[in-house]
Write a structure and sequence with these properties.
By secondary structure, this protein is of the alpha/beta class. It is 22% helix and 24% strand.
């Protein structure tokens, strides 16, 4: 059976500076980004996504909003693109190959830090090698800082001296044709952690 694709739309709730506030609906719609994640071959049932949200420190205030947004995305849109979610902060999920294999994609919605022991990281690596999908959100780029394998998975890391405080910046939108940016203004002022 051919591998399928899971379509995930990411919606911003205004970033950490606006945690706990309701985002402007028009802005949320403008910020929808479509991303295709590969799903393991042979998927017969409804698509399932694991949202892993452990953190080496205090859980970020936007975690609950992020989980809720991912759940809402999975319940809306075209029927063929819908998915169910299971959220956990328990890293032992990565040591149960059968359970982990029931998910088509894993979303890291973490506050960063060293959250997986070697056995758990090996389970995630085996899952990825078997064709599982991965999506890292926000400080997922700061997760597993001592792991060469995880660095390879995410592709790059923020510099050690990158800012951690919220800063206001102006984003200049260059690609006005891409579906993710076509409805954004030419200049978009936004408070966020700019890495």
């Amino acid at each position: 059976m051919a591998a399928g694709a899971l379509t995930v739309s990411l919606l911003s709730a205004g970033g950490p500076a606006n945690a706990g506030t309701s985002p402007d609906r028009d802005l949320v719609e403008k910020m929808a980004t479509t991303l295709s994640l590969p799903s393991p071959p042979g998927a017969k049932n409804q698509v399932k996504v694991l949202v892993f949200h452990a953190s080496a420190g205090d859980e970020a205030p936007y975690t609950d909003a992020g989980i809720a947004a991912i759940e809402k995305i999975g319940q809306t849109g075209p029927e063929a693109g819908r998915f169910t979610t299971v959220a956990t902060a328990n890293p032992n999920v990565f040591t149960n190959g059968k359970r982990l294999g029931s998910f088509h994609a894993v979303v890291f919605l973490t506050g960063g830090g060293d959250v997986l022991d070697p056995e758990q990281e090996a389970g995630l690596e085996a899952y990825m090698e078997a064709g599982g999908g991965f999506l890292g959100i926000h400080d997922a780029a700061r997760t597993e800082p001592y792991s060469d394998w995880f660095t390879g998975l995410i592709g790059a890391r923020p510099a050690a001296n990158s800012p951690t405080a919220v800063q206001r910046a102006t984003v200049e939108v260059g690609d006005r044709l891409h579906p993710a940016t076509k409805n954004l203004p030419l200049e978009w002022k936004r408070p966020d952690k700019w890495l």
